[in-house]
Amino acid sequence: MKFAPGNMPDLTEDQIHRAVVARLRVSAKPGVLPWHTPNDAKRSWGNISRLKAMGMVAGVPDLMIVHNGEIFGREIKARKGRVTPAQTEFQERLIAAGGYAMTGYGEDECLSFLSNWGLLR
């Protein structure tokens, strides 16, 4: 199936996330350290309590990256996605602590931050 420019189907958050990670694997500057913290997995209440006691925090961005002593948090959303209050709070706390945090909507916006933050070769 072919799509006219500007008429591409919306990608899911998972598809966008994978595209961002794939770009990092191919084009990241040396020393760029990205990771994903899977906070969205289904867990029992007992396991949630244990993980919170170990430091798990709600709202951690989909992709965290460290480079040159700086930390970046990128929340990845499909074009019509919504940020939760916990995600907003975490981003505000990260910025207050001296890091960088943003939410990106759609593939182009989510990929553009890589170059905007100087993470690509």
Record keyword descriptors for this entry.
121 residues, alpha+beta, four-stranded mixed β-sheet, 4 helices
Q: Briefly, what is this?
A:
With 121 residues, the protein is an alpha+beta fold.
Task: Give the SSE layout.
Blueprint: H1 13-27, E1 33-35, H2 45-53, E2 63-67, E3 70-77, H3 85-96, E4 100-105, H4 106-116
Parallel strand pairs: 3-4
Antiparallel strand pairs: 1-2, 2-3
Molecular structure report:
The chain is an alpha+beta fold and 121 residues long. 39% of the residues lie in helices and 18% in strands. It is built from four helices and four strands. The protein has a four-stranded mixed beta sheet, with helices on both faces. Helix 1 runs parallel beside helix 4. The chain is globular, with a radius of gyration of 16 Å. The termini are far apart. The mean pLDDT is 90.
